[in-house]
């Protein structure tokens, strides 16, 4: 597939995946501004729409202010509002739209997040992506709490021809991580993807186990883990903000992957997270297939979110 065809194909998936968010946001904007001047009441209503779309209060107020500049008391077309909205969202997202750079060998990626966020599936998709780029990959079944998670990772290992380091359910995850890193060095593996048990951010004992994994990894390689990816489920909306805050404190999150954007009208939460935390967003997922996880780009996301072609 040519680069242009690939770009078109991803845009189609992205705009399709964000269809619920853009229908909700775009529909509300159209209802608001059709046959109506942009007066003080309309601006206030528009701000409420943006807040309900999970964009956050500060950004919503800023967008409303930008919209009223030079347009106050004039009729305005929905697409004009959407264009301003997309441009303001893009400004927030540009600083966080950063690729994940594999800078050392083996490059250790610790993948964290709460249960059900799509962690193990994301690891599988990333393994597929790295393999397609010609990199050797090892998967580490660090979610030793759930037998199903270990089995799921083994299936992804078979699909992507990646060796999987695993132990019996209930085994010490930190010990497993230690052994896996030693093995990866011996075998000159390029990328090691380490799964972890799904933690609720308010479960202290589970969070301290995560800290132990990080400490043990550093005994093998002082610079490990080289990336800590937090996988977020877009459908949880505002709850994602507290997850980011807690995992930054506990696990030293270096980047985000947001999944399940196709299953929600709350895609705007990614913008609120970018605005509040400024953590790099490396990948987003808009579906179940391997190709539905792709590097994050600010312009494409902004335009798809508001429903512009």
Describe this protein's structure:
The chain is α/β, with parallel strands linked by helices. The chain is 52% helix and 12% strand. The chain has helices at residues 3-17, 19-33, 40-52, 57-68, 78-93, 119-132, 147-160, 173-186, 204-220, 239-251, 269-277, 298-306, and strands at residues 107-112, 137-140, 164-165, 191-194, 227-233, 255-259, 281-285, 293-295. The chain has an 8-stranded mixed β-sheet with strand order 3-2-4-1-5-6-7-8, sandwiched between helices. α7 (147-160) links the parallel β2 (137-140) and β3 (164-165). α2 (19-33) packs across α5. The longest helix is centred in the C-terminal third of the chain and has 17 residues, at 204-220.
Key attributes of the depicted protein:
single chain; 309 residues; 8 strands; elongated; alpha/beta; eight-stranded mixed beta sheet
Give the SSE string: HHHHHEHEHEHEHEHEHEEH
**Low-confidence parts lasting 5 or more residues at pLDDT below 50?**
none
State Rg.
21 Å
Approximate helicity band: 40-55%
* Through-space gap between termini: 22 Å
Strand proportion, as a percent range, falls in: 5-15%
SS-based class: alpha/beta
* Mean pLDDT over the full residue set: 90
Can you list the strand order of the major beta sheet? 3-2-4-1-5-6-7-8
Largest sheet properties: 8 strands, mixed
Give the arrangement of secondary structure elements.
Layout: H1 3-17, H2 19-33, H3 40-52, H4 57-68, H5 78-93, E1 107-112, H6 119-132, E2 137-140, H7 147-160, E3 164-165, H8 173-186, E4 191-194, H9 204-220, E5 227-233, H10 239-251, E6 255-259, H11 269-277, E7 281-285, E8 293-295, H12 298-306
Parallel strand pairs: 1-4, 1-5, 2-3, 2-4, 5-6, 6-7
Antiparallel strand pairs: 7-8
């Amino acid at each position: 597939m040519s680069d242009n065809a690939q770009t078109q194909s991803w845009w189609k998936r992205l705009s399709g995946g964000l269809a619920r968010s853009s229908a909700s946001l775009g529909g509300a904007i159209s209802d608001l501004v059709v046959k109506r001047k942009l007066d003080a009441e309309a601006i206030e209503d528009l701000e409420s729409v943006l807040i309900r779309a999970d964009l956050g209060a500060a950004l919503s107020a800023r967008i409303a202010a930008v919209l009223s500049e030079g347009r106050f008391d004039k009729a305005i077309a929905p697409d004009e509002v959407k264009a301003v909205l997309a441009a303001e969202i893009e400004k927030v997202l540009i600083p966080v739209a950063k690729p994940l750079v594999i800078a050392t060998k083996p490059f250790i990626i610790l993948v964290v997040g709460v249960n059900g966020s799509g962690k193990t599936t994301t690891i599988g998709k990333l393994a597929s992506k790295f393999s397609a780029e010609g990199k050797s990959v090892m998967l580490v079944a660090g979610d030793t709490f759930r037998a199903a998670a270990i089995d799921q990772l083994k299936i992804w290992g078979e699909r992507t021809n990646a060796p999987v380091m695993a132990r019996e359910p209930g085994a010490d995850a930190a010990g497993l991580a230690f052994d896996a890193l030693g093995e990866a060095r011996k075998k000159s593996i390029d990328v090691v993807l380490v799964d972890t048990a799904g933690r609720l951010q308010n479960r202290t004992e589970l969070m301290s186990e995560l800290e132990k994994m990080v400490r043990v990894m550093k005994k093998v390689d002082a610079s490990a883990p080289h990336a800590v990816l937090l996988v977020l489920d877009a459908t949880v909306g505002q709850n994602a903000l507290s997850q980011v805050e807690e995992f930054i404190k506990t696990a030293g999150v270096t980047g985000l992957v947001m999944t399940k954007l196709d299953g929600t009208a709350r895609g705007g939460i990614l913008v609120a997270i970018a605005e509040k935390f400024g953590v790099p967003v490396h990948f987003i997922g808009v579906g179940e297939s391997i190709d539905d996880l792709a590097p994050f780009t600010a312009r494409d996301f902004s335009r798809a979110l508001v429903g512009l072609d």
